Amino acid sequence: MSALIEGRNAVIEALRAGIEITEVLIASGTKGAPVEDVRRLAAEAGVPVKTVPRHVLDERSVRGAHQGVAAEAAPFVYTPLAEIIASAADRPRSLVVVLDHLTDEGNLGAIARSAEVAGADGLVVPKARSAQVGAVAQKTSAGALAHLPVAREANIVQVLGRLKDAGYWVIGASEKADMVAWEAPLEGRIALVMGAEGEGLARLVETTCDLLVRLPVAGSVESLNVAHAASVLMFEWVRRGT
After folding, report:
1. Who wins on pLDDT, 205 or 200?
2. Cα-atom radius of gyration of the chain, to the nearest Å?
């Protein structure tokens, strides 16, 4: 079963990354430099480009934000966790982001985008009761999912154990934490664990973490969206390494 990648940047990055694409679809009348980049990259990759009425993309789009460009691609290929761990085995600094049953695919894509920009070595999602990589995540990631390895694992607690064995310090984000992120040891080899929207970390996942941290809040709203909070914490890790 093919997957639809929506949006100019997402399609461009998929073509650049060599993702298996069978056809690029461009809505009639769609113009601009990014569209020409899509055509050029598709030609270089030997991928056919088809011009279709805009309503064709409108009808297939999940959120109606295709920007006049989409691509038919093979289903997203997940990376075994062992490969992610092995790729960073000798690095004194490494970041792996673990998502504990997020259900919003847009949040998944946004976190993937921040993780790739921050230089993370990988992202981990559960196999069940969790958002998976689909058209919405591809679009929201703005092409980052073409470059970021994503593992899909059955048991997040076991994932954290394997990361600990590989030398990662497991840090969970929780509004209930006593320690503010700025005071926490967010450097070196970190596995950052983000909980589900509204519910946060599952109890067993929370107790498996080496440390829980929170972001300070100065306004009236209690917390950030999980994708925004993840970005802040990831870039605190980046800041510590610069």
Report:
1. 205
2. 19
